[in-house]
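Continuing the batch. This is chain 6 of the set; chains 1 through 5 are on the previous pages. Same settings as before, nothing changed between runs. Recording input and output for traceability.
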Amino acid sequence: MEVGIENLTMAAVASRLGTSHQALYRWVRDRDELVALVADVYVRQLTIGPAPDGDWRAALRAFAHDLRDLLSRIPGFALEGLLAFRTTPAFLELNRQGVAVLLDAGFTPQEAQRIYQTIGTVLLGWIAREDAYRRYREHPELLASGTAEPDGTAEPDDAIERRFGPVRRAALAELTSPAAQRYSYLVELVLRGLPDPAPASS
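Output for chain 6:
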């Protein structure tokens, strides 16, 4: 956790612990197992539901914001979450909680699992992109760099400005707007787009 996911190598962990990286292999198989163990520690801090007044969207909204708060403390970890399907007890418990909220709302088990996975993928993807775009927010001048055509020829600066200036300005305005606002927009858009459960047949 102190080394950080972006710098996480067995050698870096060993150095932090004052030992050799070969010694670590007595405890974990490889970096992937180490990441899985760290992920397990963090995911135990998350819960989903129960839905207040039966409002399953409110339960998912609260989870979405808790997830962002948690992952904002560990940059780079969202991408790790996208790249592996984890089945440790902590991940399975979180999945169970999410599905339970949706089952209580009237979704079928398959629908509930699909919604849970969709929400998780969208949220982790947004947070991973935020991590990746951090350098643009810190150095917005990178968005003003030249643009080359596929054949490698570059357009004159005024032509680039005419073609891409408005897009660059809009992208920069969006990237530098408050992240909490952009995240809330995403969450609300996704939640509104999810279907309501089918009415129970009588």
